[in-house]
Write a structure and sequence with these properties.
Layout lengths: L6 H17 L4 H44 L7 H14 L9 E10 L6 E8 L28 E12 L11 E10 L11
Helix pairs in contact: 2-3
């Protein structure tokens, strides 16, 4: 039968164990990873959210430019043309859903001799979001920057794109906001206002 360790031997073994634990570095990496993992995860998710935001902004800019370009090309715009242009916005915004979270406004602006620029017509489509044009309402004076004023008897076409941006990951920290892009094109083939048939 083995003898039980004495209290002095027990204390010596305990001190030896503490000395070995104090000198051991085997768990140092685990402690560092436990501290750094949440920080790295937040940085990674933030990078994903930022990349998503930048991609949405680029697509909105492209949509505004494409819509303005298409409207300004012909000598007249039909309702079918506008319907096709509005349909193209959903394709330009893929993989993001546009009809539920966005809207496009197309505004025709002209200026008669001696008069301020006037909104001739305005069409809304491509989505269900409800937003007012920053250019103005049909029959009213157009609000445009000084360097984008139409010349006499000249037509401008303003494409405005609104998008209701909601963060994918940090929705409790980043506020939901409405993004806005616009483009202005001069009528290419006519100095007169293009009417809708």
């Amino acid at each position: 039968m083995a003898a039980l360790p004495t209290p002095a031997l027990f204390r010596e073994r305990r001190r030896g164990l503490f000395r070995r634990l104090r000198r051991s570095r085997r768990g140092a990496v685990l402690v560092e990873m436990a501290v750094l993992t949440p920080i790295l995860l937040i940085l990674l998710l933030g990078a994903v959210e930022f990349a998503r935001y930048v991609l949405i902004m680029q697509k909105l800019d492209r949509a505004a430019m494409s819509v303005g370009d298409l409207v300004s090309r012909g000598t007249q715009v039909t309702s079918q043309d506008l319907s096709n242009i509005f349909d193209s916005v959903g394709h330009l915004m893929q993989p993001f859903s546009f009809p539920d979270t966005g809207v496009v406004l197309i505004t025709a602006v002209t200026r008669s001799a001696g008069d301020p620029p006037e909104v001739v017509w305005q069409e809304v489509g491509a989505g269900d979001l409800v937003e007012a044009s920053r250019v103005g309402t049909p029959g009213g004076e157009a609000v445009l920057p000084q360097n984008l004023q139409p010349r006499e008897n000249e037509s401008l076409y303003v494409a405005e794109v609104y998008y209701d941006y909601a963060p994918l990951i940090f929705d409790s920290f980043v506020q939901q906001s409405t993004l806005y892009h616009w483009s202005v094109f001069r009528a290419r083939l006519s100095d007169q206002v293009i009417t809708i048939d």
